Fold this protein.
Amino acid sequence: MILQNLAKKVSVSLLALTFPLTAITAIGFSDVTLGTKNYVAIEFLKEKGIISGYEDGTFKPRQLVSRAEAIKMLLIGTGQYTDQSIEEKAQEIETLLFTDVNNNEWYIPYLKTAILKDIVSGYDDNTFKPEQTVNLAESLKIFLEAFDDLQYPEEQELIAAIEHNKISDIDLESWYAKYVKYAAAKDLLEIFNDYNVNPDQEMTRGHIAEIIYRHMLAQEGYRFGKATFYGKAVQGNFTASGERFDMNTHTAAHRTLPFGTVVKVTNLANNKSVDVKINDRGPYGPGRVIDLSSSAFAEIASLGAGVIHVNYQVISE
């Protein structure tokens, strides 16, 4: 059995997901607006035809996701399956014998596909609990095991990612350790202020969309995390590169990138971007990956925000 019991349940609602989609509307979801958490991820996946919303024009990003919903969303999110290919694959199993599963339900082809790929299984009492909410660790296993050719980094590199981010709540001997370590190495995880990633947290539609989006962009060299800023308090001080800090220029601190590297930083809540030059070292807070000058930060967010979620990509070194 790969999924744990969770006390809280939500009713199953159909996730309208197709890949590819022949026609994509130009109008965004009514409940996913600028400033919404996971805004960039949801809009990106919608434009790619990987997700769509409900008939009322909403996406419901905060809605908890059931086991049945998660299987469909994560299988399609790999880009390796279409609704048609899943229907064809599902023909290899005639009937599912779980006592709590109706074989006429919308999710049956996806569940059959996941079982055939040995991604999920039932419980000892011969139930599957399709309406039970899914957590982070379970979602990562479903998603990563769904790939046919996913290349895991060496174990040493995976452990280094955990240590680099100082993640404190991962049992390295647990069944889910392999998946969480990979997710940490690829920046798929949000690291909270206590250096935890909360593998037992229940998943929302927005959060699952974020994981799919981050994994797609990670293959193209993007990195993810939190961005902060610094300004007047250190104006004129020497940076680690030897340059004087000027809060009015677009510079940034990064822990490892060579000085002089130019990176494009994008706010994941509004899709605003700014190019900055690395000339300092830091930041070192939980989940923080880049520290922008106040003028650069102001290009993509209000200074009052303090900390924002971003992606960044090296433009030139």
In short: The longest helix spans residues 205-218.
